[in-house]
Amino acid sequence: MARFCLKHLLALTITLVVVSFLVFTLNEFSPGDVARKILGAYATQEQVAHLTTEMGLDRPVIVRYVEYLGKLASGDLGFSTRFKVPVRQIIWDRLRNTLVLAAIAFALIVPVSMLLGVLAGMREGSWLDRTILVFSTVSASVPEFAMGVFLASIFVVGLGWLPGTATLVAGGGWSVASQFVLPVAVIVLYDAGYVVSMIRASMVEVMQRPYIRTAVLKGMAFRWVVLGHALRNAMINPVTVICLQLSYLVSGVVVVETVFAYPGFGRMMLEAALFKDIALIEAGALVAVGVAIFTQILGDLAYMLLDPRIRA
Amino acid sequence: MTPPIVDSAAVQPVALPRAPAALAGLRTLARGLLRVTESPAATVGLAIVLLWVLAAILAPMLSPYPPNANDFAAVSSPTPSRAHWLGTDHLGRDIGARILWGARTVFTVAPLAVLGAALLGALLGLSAGYYRGWVDLVLSRAGDIILTFPVIILYMIVLATFGSSAGNIIAVLTLTKAPIIARIVRGLTLELREREYVAAAKMRGESALYIMVVEILPNARGPLLVDMCLRMGYTIVLIGVLGFLGIGLPPPDPDWGGMVKDTYGMMSVWPHMSLFPCAAISSLVIGFNLLAVGLREIALRD
């Protein structure tokens, strides 16, 4: 267990350093400079040059990178040029908003896709299996922005049941809770479709194993064969995929955030990238990669819990 | 260790299919297309995809207006009419024409990106699986790091830095998707390299490249094809998403995601402007994914 943690921690550190360096140098290639972005099109060349020197942007990239690492180590994430506040003041707020959205969606995706996936996979080729397979394929095929437009045109424009934006500020007669319905629905429909097909495939495979046939032949009730014998083994492979969805939910929901004007992490990153807000991009990339690796470790742990054969 | 094959009868079947390789390839393709009809899902999927391919090819003939032409008379009432069947957008551009021409963009960028990823991924996967040792270690680790990075954040940073053009989108999609394909091909190669025909090829003194490309790769094509089909669907979604986020193909040329981005803010007044491009991209992706599901079903049946 100690070796497991140490190995993953080492990999985490190395990946974070590599990523931070790549993102830092990548910004060097971008056309147009930061000072010009901040001052706007009407600033004179002297003003731009002055701000560049003031921000220390005229020094070699390696010097600035080492300096950045030093500041990072002391907890200073830098200043966001896009939002004109220190990075730490905005990044945790936005991350928390996205985590709330992701957590609600995840809490729905897991039970829904487990139920549908097991129902479909326990009798391969049955009409229930066909229906669920086609439904999940279709719902995973519709891009999130398209699903958002479809749902919004029905429930916002057509029926007027729900608000079309989720700004997390109650207004226009809509509560904050009602603002979550559509964003969560879009994420669940898109993501559950994918997870259902993974669980179904694994379930189909498990149901063909000899011990399942033995259980059926010895007269065990089919329900108990599924719940008692098949379920746990069928979840071994999908559990890693399910954990990876957490990482996807944190950075991948940028589309949903954009559709519904939700003040989340992904949209903040998009704005930062378009504005070349280096400090915010760096911090955001590190957080996103950190979350991704953390969910991978979580996936490995869950895998070990479910499958005693690889518990070393 | 596989014993050296001296029996001439055993060598024969390996040497035979080499000469008419192109012909055999065509025949397999035709047989494959026929087999698609065995699965209803694959048939429906293929029909949808072919319909869109046809629409993309015939776009100049089918669309009544150029995709970027403004009909300013239509701006005041952009809803579907006899002159504009699917209506016009906020700039008076015919939505039907833009969707048809947008299909051309999709069918150039997506296949190139998928093909690029497949080629690079197959090459990396073959090398990793065939040479094993440190080559495998380096390639697999590098791939893992790329796969760890949340792709959409990566696209934002890279495309905002280098500018978003068709070339950059293809390059970034190729680089980020190749590791997944490499992983699949590596697994298959590890298994296939132990086969007798590989031993026979080594015995003949064939080069490593020849063995990988001619002996191993054709036998790994089944799972690779299904994956490419799925990947086409995902790639089209990604291109749409990039367009929607404003880091996709540069305007004014029609791009389905970009069309939605420009108009979804006006949805409460003119929903048709964003609904039609959304329907277009959804139907095409559904087509590819149904095809992939059906193909996998057929492959599993054997």
* Helix/strand/pairing category of chain A: mainly alpha
Largest sheet of chain A: 2 strands, antiparallel
Compute the separation of the termini of chain A in Å. Answer: 8 Å
Low-confidence stretches of chain B: 1-19
The end-to-end distance of chain B, rounded to whole angstroms, is 29 Å
> What percentage of residues of chain A falls in helices of 4 or more residues?
over 70%
The total domain count of chain B is 1
* Arithmetic mean pLDDT of chain A: 82
Contiguous low-pLDDT stretches of chain A (5 residues minimum) are none
CATH superfamily of chain B: MetI-like
Which outline of chain B best applies? elongated
User: Gyration radius of chain A, to the nearest Å?
Assistant: 24 Å
> So, CATH architecture of chain B?
Orthogonal Bundle
- Give the oligomer, counting copies of the same chain as homo and different chains as hetero: heterodimer
**In percent, how much strand structure appears in the residues of chain B?**
under 5%
Could you say which overall geometry of chain A the principal axes of the C-alpha atoms support?
flat
Would you mind describing this structure in some detail?
The complex is a heterodimer of chains A (312) and B (302). In chain A, α7 crosses α8, α8 (176-207) packs across α10 and α9 runs antiparallel to α10 (222-252). Chain A is 76% helix and 1% strand. Chain A is built from 13 helices and two strands; from the N terminus they run ααααββααααααααα. Chain A has helices spanning 2-26, 34-39, 45-54, 61-73, 87-122, 127-141, 144-158, 176-207, 210-217, 222-252, 254-259, 265-275, 278-306; strands at 79-80, 85-86. The longest helix of chain A is centred in the middle third of the chain and has 36 residues, at 87-122. With 312 residues, chain A is mainly alpha-helical. In chain A, strands 1-2 form a two-stranded antiparallel sheet. Chain B is mostly helical. In chain B, 73% of the residues lie in helices and 0% in strands. Chain B has 13 helices and no strands. In chain B, α3 packs across α13. The longest helix of chain B is centred in the middle third of the chain and has 37 residues, at 95-131. Classes of the chains: A mainly alpha (312), B mainly alpha (302). Chains A and B meet through α1, α6, α7, α10 and α11 of A and α7, α11 and α13 of B.
